[in-house]
Design goal:
heterodimer, A: alpha+beta, TATA-Binding Protein, 2 domains, 5-stranded antiparallel sheet, 5 helices, elongated, B: alpha+beta
Chain lengths: 200, 198
């Protein structure tokens, strides 16, 4: 391999590695936590406040929750399976966004809306950062940038990984025994992935 | 100086060995992770279900559900990682899961017949997502090995980052863009963590 190519690959490997380093740290740590749950998982603290909001009491749960969410100025998902309401007019729903859950309680007979803000634990926050490379479309610019960074880090990380083969060939792997070991580990891993996928 | 050189060599060795150990798995996780994050590019697909009612030709021993699950697996040619539950009515259900396919076996209270529901969603996206999400240690030897490899991959991701930054630091005068890249990336990480946590 000529010097120019080697120089280019070194740059790609080092700069690519630096770009993806933080994402790999987050993903590595959260993946370990998926398996062993060593980080705190319990929600850390809550804050409750009330707000007066005029709304149309005849609205269906779906429309009412959307209206209240917009009046509160909170972006987040409204899971329908979390809607709770009874005949006396009580209505409770959740607004979910990465790192935070908002529990909203109201009575259709008055304008008082009670919001409980639940702050997620470190374990859940890291999980949200792990999943955050999927664009959440909630309108938080910072999370959109993180999502873009996550996808960029994945592509760059892929190229960095590929480039490491050239370093194995030119610098690190010293004899046939080591190549043999690489081949055995590679074949075993590919076979395992295929087995779990096709047979399970 | 000698000690520093030794430490640097050890650091490089860790970087190299961890890259060999988990190259294939890292490769798989990077590709499946990317596909999962770009769900809008792929067909998600819908579940295709079919159900069979079958008589049971043997008397099942419900005192050992793990063993019974394995027997059912052999008898009805079921594949995948097994889990099981028993509800208050006494019905026992087993699930055999592999990427894209879930087989659910419901054994009624009389233990004379069972219902097998086969649910399939074999789109590229779904299989990819399921392979990416396999974790934990239960389900047999191969899943245990998978769990260990996942741990090693995750650990290597951390090691690659740390040892890589250390290796770059030694040659920072050549690779001068390293500082701005690291500062931007880590400031972004801190901001996102702070935004989510506080």
């Amino acid at each position: 391999m000529n010097k120019k190519t080697m120089k280019f690959l070194s740059k790609l490997h080092i700069y690519g590695g630096l770009i993806s380093s933080l994402f790999f740290l987050v993903v590595g740590l959260s993946a370990l936590n998926f398996q062993h749950q060593f980080l705190p998982e319990k929600d850390t603290k809550t804050a409750t406040y009330t707000k007066m909001i005029s709304f149309d009491a005849s609205l269906q749960a779906d429309s009412l929750s959307k209206f209240i969410r917009s009046e509160l100025g909170i972006s987040g998902h409204l899971p329908k399976w979390e809607f709770r309401q009874n005949k006396s007019g009580m209505f409770r729903f959740l607004i979910l966004r990465p790192g935070r859950t908002f529990e909203v309680k109201l009575n259709r007979n008055d304008d008082q809306v009670e919001v409980t803000e639940i702050f997620h634990s470190t374990g859940k926050v890291l999980r949200a950062m792990h999943f955050g490379s999927s664009r959440n479309k909630l309108g938080y610019t910072l999370l959109d940038i993180w999502s873009f960074y996550g996808q960029l880090a994945t592509i760059v990380g892929f190229l960095t990984l590929i480039s490491s083969i050239f370093f194995w060939m030119n610098r690190s792997v010293k004899n046939k025994k080591q190549w043999g070991a690489i081949l055995v580990i590679g074949i075993f891993s590919v076979s395992l992935i295929l087995y779990i996928w096709l047979i399970g | 100086m000698v000690n520093r050189l030794k430490w640097y060599k050890r650091n490089r060795k860790i970087h190299f060995i961890s890259s060999i150990l988990v190259f294939t798995f890292s490769f798989m996780y990077i590709i499946t992770g990317f596909v999962t994050s770009k769900h809008e590019w792929f067909t998600v697909g819908e579940d295709v279900k079919h159900t069979q009612n079958l008589p049971l030709h043997f008397v099942p021993d419900t005192t050992n559900l793990k063993k019974l699950g394995r027997e059912l697996k052999r008898e009805f040619d079921l594949n995948g990682r097994m889990d099981y539950t028993k509800n208050k009515k006494g019905d026992i259900s087993f699930r055999y899961i592999r990427p894209g396919i879930v087989q659910h076996v419901l054994m009624n209270n009389d233990l004379d017949s069972l219902v097998i529901t086969h649910t399939e969603r074999k789109t590229l996206y779904e299989i990819n997502k399921r392979v990416h999400r396999v974790h934990g240690f239960q389900g047999g030897v191969l899943y245990f090995i998978w769990g260990i490899l996942l741990d090693l991959t995750a650990l290597s991701m951390i090691l690659f980052s740390v040892t890589g930054i250390v290796m770059w630091y030694r040659s920072r005068k050549i690779y001068t863009f390293g500082w701005p890249i690291l500062i931007v990336v880590f400031v972004l990480g801190i901001l996102v963590f702070t935004f989510l946590k506080f």
